[in-house]
Structures are given as structure tokens and as C-alpha cells.
Amino acid sequence: MSSFIRLTDYKKEELQEIFDITDNIDRYEGFLTGKTVVMFFPANSIRTRVSFEKGIHLLGGQTILFDPSTLDKKEDIRDVCGYLENWADAVIVRHKDISLLGKMAENLEIPVINAMTDDNHPCEMMSDLYSLSQIRKDYLSDKYLFVGADGNIGRAWKEASEAFGFSLTQSCPHEFQIPETDCIDDLRTAVVGKDIVCTDSFPQEMFNGAKSYQVTKEIMNLANKGAVLNPCPPFYRGEEVSDDVIDSEYFVGYEFKKNLLRVQQAIIVFCMKK
Ligand SMILES: NC(=O)NCCC[C@H](N)C(=O)O
Fold it and tell me: Coiled-coil ranges per the record (predicted)?
């Protein structure tokens, strides 16, 4: 049993093993029969929660859902884990504090799967990279551009670039630069030579200069031929992305996230088999 908290906890080959399990997920029918996965998700989670719950159900398992604030109580997390382990076979946690997930992993023999923290979003990255592997000729040789401020999604792309070894550049005002990341503040310059353009919503503080960081169809025309726009949902038309770019052929499409279901199932299988 192992936990899934940061992509950089694993070798690239191990992460690619998750893609192999994804390709063959039908072989794992009944893998979770009689098993219970306890999930901590806020009410505003739509995609990650729907795909996790459905994925567990399809593998034969049961889910029990709590709000993440259930973990922020006076009781020591070691004691919460000690009791939880009697009945749970895995836990999936969306919580701002990644160190809490680390403590849970230290105190549980069952896997702890990170469903987003303020530091990263490893399951989303795995699904995006799996989807890119399906639509790109060589997704690890592509040049990635993250447009947006330092935050969980930017850091998640940074972590993914380290774990998989692909090239990542950020574009945003310098005060929002992700530490130790190549950052070009001029978006028109940054997008030249890029293949995969990713975004996250702008933090309130970045709204002033935000228009100069909006990814439009005109901006995408400056990228490499065949480039794609992969905005992190929820995205906001008229803010980090324009209406015209979402309605264009550059947008990877809603179906790009369809693989969240199978990739997350594969992450559960991978963690429980290890
Ligand atoms: N696709 C998702 O799972 N949503 C991620 C939301 C990212 C955003 N930066 C947030 O933390 O609110």
C-alpha cells in the first residue's frame, strides 16, 4: 500500500505504470468489492468528486463522504487515523494543507490519495498527461506554457514537469512567479514555440493587469502549429481565457477530462497493489 501525495514521490516509470493500468482498467472489475473508500471533499468539488465516486462504484467499492473540515478538529489526526483504519481501505482527501495528508499517510497503513491541496493537484495532472499522451505525437517532448500566478495548479504543473521531465515555462507578472520556474512576463513572447498552453483562474490580486494575460485565439495563433489550450476548470470566459478561444479548435474540449474516471481508478489500484 502506498499513498499518492506528490508526483515527485515516484519515478517516471512508476507513473507510467499508472497509465498502463488505465489502459487495462477493465481487467480490474470487482477490485474494490467489499472495500470502503472514505472521501473528504468540499461541496464545491464537481469533476474530481463525480469521477472518483463513479470510478469506485464501478470497481465494486463503497464511498463514504465527509467535508474536509471534519479533519480540522481538536482530536489529534493520529487518533482519527487509528480508528478510521478499522473500516476504511483507502482515503481520498481534498484539503488545503498538504502536510495534513502527509501526517495521515504516516499514521495509516492504507493509501491516502491527494485530491487537491493548496500546493498541488496530482490526480488532475495524471489525467491531463494521460489525455495528452492520447492526442499528441510525443507529449513529453512538447513545450508547455502555464499562464497564471503561483498557486496550486501552477505548482502542480511544475511538479509534473519535474516528475516526467518535460519543459515548462510560466507567463505572469514577476511577483507571481512560481519559485525556481522559468518565467516570461510578456505573454506574446512566452507563447512562441509552445505546444501546450495551460491556465488557472487569476487570483484577485492579479486582476489589474489580467487582460494582458488573457489567452485569446490571437495569442494561440502565435504558438506552434497544432498547439492546444488546456485550461484548468473552473475557467472563466473573459478572464484568463477569452470566449473566442474556448469556442475555437485550440480548446482541448470538455471530453479531455473524461479520462479522470479511469486514471483515478488506476491510481487507486496502483496504490492498493503497491
Ligand atoms: N479541476 C479541478 O479539480 N479544479 C481545480 C481548481 C483549481 C483552483 N486553482 C482552485 O484551487 O480553486
Answer: none
Distance CA 59, CA 18 (A): 16
| Percent of residues, the chain, with pLDDT higher than 90 | 96
d(C-alpha 271, C-alpha 255), whole Å? 26
Q: Residue 205's pLDDT is what? A: 80
Q: Taken in order 72, 73, 79, 84, is the CA torsion positive or negative?
A: negative
The pLDDT tens digits of the residues spanning 56-84 come to 999 999 999 999 999 999 999 999 999 99
The domains located in the chain, with CATH, are 7-120+258-273 (3.40.50.1370), 123-253 (3.40.50.1370)
From start to end of 101-234, where are the E strands?
Answer: 112-114, 143-147, 167-171, 196-199, 228-231
pLDDT of amino acid 172: 95
Minimal-distance CA residue to ligand 1 atom 11:
152
- The closest residue, in CA terms, to atom 7 on ligand 1 is 153
pLDDT tens digit string along 230-243?
Answer: 999 999 999 999 99
In this predicted structure, what is the pLDDT of residue 210? 64
Can you give the pLDDT at residue 69? 96
Closest ligand 1 atom, CA of 257?
1
Tell me how far CA of residue 1 lies from CA of 71, 83, 90, 92, 110, in angstroms.
22, 18, 9, 14, 6
Q: Point out the residues of the chain with pLDDT beneath 70.
A: 207-210
Cα 83 to ligand 1 centre (Å): 30
Helix (H), strand (E) at residue 92: strand 90-93
CA dihedral 139, 142, 146, 147 (to 10 degrees): -120
260 CA to centre of ligand 1 in angstroms: 14
